[in-house]
Every structure is written in structure tokens, then in C-alpha cells.
Amino acid sequence: VLKVLSHIDSILRSPRAPPLIYRRSKGPVQNCIKENGQECGFEHLPLTVEMWADQLMALKDLHRSLRKLSLELVPWHTADPQDNRESVRVEDLQFIVDAILEEIENKEKNSQTPPLPTLFAIVSHFQKLFDVNSLNGVYPRMNEVYTKLGEMTNVMRNLHELLELDSSAPPTVVVDTVGKLCDIINENVTEQVQQLLGTQDIHSIIDKLEEHECFFPPFQALIQDLLCLLEIRNPDDILPTVRNLK
């Protein structure tokens, strides 16, 4: 027993021991003679050992709390191998704390995540803009908007190339250019119709169309009757067949 107490006393007196753990008793000291003849006091040892035991138990509780905190803050970290050990070292606790601090520092450096109220405001604004009634509909509507935006971007790019416009030209310029092009086409069509009908007067065009409506049905009926009478199918064969009959 004396050897054990002497060994404990030497640990308490060691420079590695915390300075507040070993305190020489202020009262009468009960001395004992070690094998080497040196004196030692043991009255402080039970309190010190009890304090150490309490601290070791507290380390386990602290380790469990730190593990819970780590799972909340950095859940992607795998469990450390000390989880299944009976004893817990200060180094284990320091490892968990360092991992949490490192993750927090990296987030502060690399992430510009806005606060939750700002994120809620952004989602709410998106719902109002694109008429989304529930949070479940936000992602589908986002995909729909992204698809439509891609289609419109491709259309505008193709129109810029076809109309030989600069890529920076706004949509209003594209619309105006398309409108002017349609006007030019309509004017050309009108001129071609006028040249085809041989008139520059719209009333003359109407008269010719009315004459066509009066003439064409009887003419078409006559041709059909000749085809049936001559027993032929092609209108080009009418004249040769009539010549043969003469």
C-alpha cells in the first residue's frame, strides 16, 4: 500500500501534473517513511483521486455531448474510432472540437449563404412571380422556367443570325425588324398579284375575281362532260380525240 501511495504521490508531485491538483496540507502532516527514507504526506490523496475520478466521468459526458454537437453541425463526418472505447482521452475531445472549428471556418471563408429569412423571402417572391401555390411546386416550376428560358434563348440567337443583327440587340429591335420584314413581304405579294391580274386597281381585281367565279364552274363542267363522253381521263387528250372523230 505504501508503495502505491508513494507512486501516486510522485505522480501528483510530477511537473506534468496540473498545478491546482496537488496542494500540501496546511495542517499537521502525517508522515511516513518511504523506502528511500524521504517523507511524504498522503492526507490529500483521497480527495485528489476522487476529483480525478469525477473528471474522468465528466470527460465521458463531455465526449457524448460533443459527439451530438458534431452530428448536428458536421453530420457528414464519419464516427471516430474512439466511440467504442471505454476510456476517453482529452485528445479525443480536442479532435472533435478541432473538426467542428475547421468546418465552421471553411464555411465562413467559402460560403456566402444568406440568412434563413432572406431565403424564405426569395422563395416567397418566386412563388408570387410564377404563380406557385405550394413549396412542392417550386422545383417543377423552376425546371419549367429554365426549359422555357433555354428555348427562348435559342430562338433569339437564331433570329439575330437570320436578321444579321448584333448579338447585343434587345428583343424590341428583333421584333421591329421582323415587323418591317413582314411589311416588305406583304407589299411584294400585293405587287405580284397586281402584275398577275394585269391591273393596278383593287376594284379591277375584285371584278376579275368575280368574272372568274362566273366563268370557271361552267367551263369545268363542260370539260368533265367531254371527258365522260369521249371516255378519256386526261384533258390534254380531248383535242386529239375530237380530231380523230372528224
From TrEMBL:
Q: Which GO terms describe its cellular component?
A: centrosome
Entry keyword annotation includes Thylakoid? no
Gene Ontology terms, MF aspect:
gamma-tubulin binding
Q: What is its main location?
A: cytoplasm
- One of the GO BP terms on file: regulation of microtubule cytoskeleton organization
Record keyword Cell cycle present: no
Give the coiled coil ranges. Answer: none
- Subcellular location field: Cytoplasm, Cytoskeleton, Microtubule organizing center, Centrosome
Q: Which UniProt keywords apply?
A: Coiled coil, Cytoplasm, Cytoskeleton, TPR repeat
The UniProt subunit note reads as follows:
Directly interacts with tubulin-gamma; this interaction determines centrosomal localization.
Briefly, what is this protein's role?
Answer: Plays a role in the organization of both preexisting and nascent microtubules in interphase cells. During mitosis, required for the organization and orientation of the mitotic spindle.
The protein depicted here goes by the name: Centrosomal protein of 70 kDa
Q: Which organism is it from?
A: Aptenodytes patagonicus
What's the encoding gene here? CEP70_0
